[in-house]
Amino acid sequence: MSEKRLSLSPARFLSARRRHRSAGLVVLLFGLLAVGSAYAAFAPDNAVADNSAQSQQIEEGKKLFAVGCSSCHGLNAEGATNGEGRLAGPSLIGVGAAAVDFQVGTGRMPAVQPGAQIPEKPPTYTQAEIEALAAYVASLAPGPAVPAQESYDISKATDEQVTRGGELFRTNCTACHNFAGRGGALPNGRYAPSLMGVTERHIYEAMLTGPQQMPVFSDQVLQPQDKRDIIAYLKALETQKDPGGFGLGRLGPVSEGLWGWLVGIGLLVGVAVWIGAKGVKAKGAKAE
């Protein structure tokens, strides 16, 4: 048998070797090795640079969190209680980068003091610092990411989409924000804030994450296009003029009727009192 192999020509010998049942596995391993070598030769610099930049951003966010957020949310964002055993700040594990971008970007966090409602205020951190904080919290556990610009872009919204957005808003949001997005009172000292002047990005993030007492409108509840239509409706409201000159918060006939009663009837009562006083003086002058 060995003499027969030695008698084969080199070409026939190699052909016989390739037909061995392990030849396919050897070829596959060589192919993978070649692809891996090519990738290592051309791609590692960018990949390492991206990972390094992301790690540096997360580390910066961790430092900012330890200084400005850990007193309420815990050193590792696990939540914390105050001296009386009450919750000082909830756990942020799993809330995602979008929640951080909304809360810190609108100035609600860090909070000046705990309370039933954390009001909006000018942001404390720069945009780069907000992105670092968001990256750190996002690294703790999966959660909603900061939406891309095309997710909330309404520059090409049609009248039909604005109308549909109004229908969706009146169905899902008016119970708290009123039909014109001007906000409203809620129990226990809370309130739904006005949506006028809020950026498209923050409106989208609020629907995505459900800040404070607001419910979460995930993409399974309201699809991205639904969210864009609602944003388009709210932005259309911002440019809508009040025919009467004074919108009265657009709270409807109750506020308008109350204003008419207090001002209109008040003026009539004042005029009646003035006329009555003038009449008494006139009678007194005649009697003298």
TrEMBL record:
Domain of life assignment: Bacteria
Compartment(s) of residence: Cell membrane
Descriptive protein name: Cytochrome bc1 complex cytochrome c subunit
The UniProt record lists the keyword RNA-binding: no
Protein topology in the membrane: Multi-pass membrane protein
Segments forming a coiled coil: none
Residue ranges of the TM segments: 258-277
